[in-house]
Specification:
This protein is α/β, with parallel strands linked by helices. The chain contains 13 helices and 12 strands.
């Protein structure tokens, strides 16, 4: 059986907050990924199962390939719907924050949520969480926020009560945040957790196909364009870079989420240790979004912090550059120079 994450006092406090609440709002970070959507929907099903009034609010839209997840169609998007959602947020008597470690990760939604003084529960696996929740369940050692939520559900209710819908949502989060269990997934407890989810009758093969092998023609052509035309490799640093401009997004009818996972592909090149993907923000002028992925012990989270105003995990991180794509590429090249010894696999003191 998986070990408990919370002690008895923490469990009682969390149970008390949930039992007293009637109107619960679940939120996540901007540009929701599989772990964020899986975490929200899993909690949504659990709270509805115990007769709570629950609303899920995402800061902005999420990828189409996640919309099949049970409950995903009930997620409200705050961006461009602020006025309609204000009464719901103001009336909430409990907030549950999933998959982010500080309010600014919600962007505009964060201001509205933090203006409500109702209790807030933070469930997350990112490093260095800020103290903004009434109850915090932060475990950076976990592979995904969904792994934490599964462990919490096992403490809050019997294993037999977890539904196939909840299990499906949780598996999506664990699978996507590990790239299909190819990084940050060597702990034996992860596979005990998968065993619990499989016991609920989920179809893991179908889940994998829905997420990784389902896309539009435009997205498929965009992937080919990025790999053939835009990918630059830097063999001396064992690194690669892909960039995407607003004009190129329009050319391929690219929607938010269509580039999800592309940053992982260059890591298949023999000897590659770092892959970086930069894309112009669709709404903010002179903002370049940066995604970083690495293998083995290269700390792309440290590079994200040092050069891209971001952070994350050892092998998966993100950030941004305020400026042009040319400026962002120049910063990337400076980062390669600084991290050259680590990229080449040389130990430095």
């Amino acid at each position: 059986m998986l070990p408990n994450l919370l002690n008895e006092c923490e469990v009682r406090e969390l149970q008390s907050l949930i039992s007293q609440a009637q109107n619960v709002v679940i939120t996540c970070h901007v540009s929701p990924d599989g772990d964020a959507v899986g975490s929200m929907t899993a909690l949504y099903h659990y709270l509805r199962r115990i007769n709570k009034n629950v609303t899920m609010v995402a800061p902005n839209i999420f990828p189409d390939f996640l919309k099949w997840i049970p409950g995903a169609n009930d997620i409200h998007v705050y961006d461009k719907n602020e006025e309609a959602l204000e009464p719901t947020i103001a009336a909430a008597d409990l907030f549950m924050f999933v998959d982010f470690n500080e309010p600014k990760r919600m962007e505009k939604l964060g201001d509205a949520v933090m203006a409500n003084n109702s209790p807030k529960v933070l469930i997350d696996h990112h490093l260095n969480p800020t103290d903004f929740g009434s109850v915090s369940c932060s475990h950076p050692e976990m592979c995904a926020t969904c792994e934490i939520i599964l462990r919490l559900l096992l403490q809050l209710s019997a294993i037999d009560e977890i539904t196939p819908e909840e299990a499906t949502c949780l598996y999506v989060g664990m699978m996507t945040d590990t790239g299909g269990f190819i990084y940050n997934s060597s702990r034996s407890e992860i596979y005990e957790a998968i065993g619990v989810l499989l016991s609920k009758g989920i179809d893991k093969d179908k889940i994998y196909r829905n997420v990784f092998y389902t896309c539009t023609t435009d997205r498929f052509r965009l992937m080919g364009y990025l790999l053939y035309v835009k990918m630059k490799t830097f063999p001396e640093y064992r690194a690669s870079l892909m960039t995407l401009t607003k004009d190129e997004r329009k050319l391929f009818s690219c929607k938010n989420g269509d580039t999800e996972g592309f940053v992982n592909i260059p890591l298949q090149i023999n000897g590659m240790r770092l892959s970086v993907f930069m894309r112009e923000d669709t709404e903010k002028k002179n903002v370049i979004r940066v995604s970083l992925r690495s293998v083995d012990d290269f700390p792309c989270n440290a590079m994200a912090t040092d050069f891209f105003n971001g952070g994350g995990h050892l092998n998966a991180a993100g950030g941004e550059v305020i400026g042009t794509m040319d400026q962002a590429e120049a910063i990337f090249k400076e980062a390669l120079k600084k991290y050259a010894p680590l990229l080449r696999g040389v130990n430095v003191s």
